[in-house]
Amino acid sequence: MLKKEQKDFILFMVECLIGTVIGFVLYRLYPVIGAWSLVSIILVLSPDRKDAMNLATNRIKANLVGALIGLAISFFHPISLTMICAGIAVGMLLCEWLKLKTVTKSSIVAILIITMHEPGQYFWNIALERAFGVMLGCIIGVILTYFFHIARVHSTRTLQRMRHRP
């Protein structure tokens, strides 16, 4: 690996580890919300530093689409394979329409997270907890992306200034 690639890899690893710690603390406090926040935090983070902020915001949009579709289909009809497939199809169409093609998988994962549940539990409560967990994870992921993006920009500028000094 080149020096820049090594730096980006290490920054991404640190970002993922910090996200994991935050998600795990949430999981210990609120198991359902925390578990899905942890998954969403990792889904929002990106190893590609060039377009990290844009990708993170697009993943949040896709997760919002997925969460809303998951909640909507669970409200209108009992969950079945047909409903899950319909939700995935609608999610894919909305992502295409909203020009979120590159993050469509995030939307599909959000739909699955919200619609899949254990038998005998109050589905609506579980769906709302999971939707909240997904959104919280996305927010944490974009905040981490923002801070690491800012840190990288400032460190790059500092290095450039140091190189150009006499």
What does this structure look like?
With 166 residues, this protein is an all-alpha fold. The chain has a domain at 53-147. It has helices spanning 3-29, 31-44, 52-76, 81-97, 104-115, 123-164. It starts with a helix and ends with a helix.
Layout of SSEs?
Blueprint: H1 3-29, H2 31-44, H3 52-76, H4 81-97, H5 104-115, H6 123-164
Helix pairs in contact: 1-2, 1-6, 2-6, 3-4, 3-5, 3-6, 4-5, 5-6
Write a compact overview of the structure shown.
This protein has 166 residues and is mostly helical. The chain is 83% helix and 0% strand.
Radius of gyration: 18 Å
Average pLDDT, all residues = 83
Structural class of the helix and strand makeup? Answer: mainly alpha
Topology order in helix (H) and strand (E) letters: HHHHHH
Number of strand segments = 0
Uncertain regions: pLDDT < 50 for 5+ in a row? Answer: none
Please describe the biggest sheet, giving its number of strands, its sense, and whether it closes into a barrel.
none
Shape: elongated
Helix share bin: over 70%
Put simply, the count of helices is 6
Distance between the termini: 30 Å
Report the portion of residues in β strands.
Answer: under 5%
What labels would you give this structure?
166 residues; mainly alpha; elongated
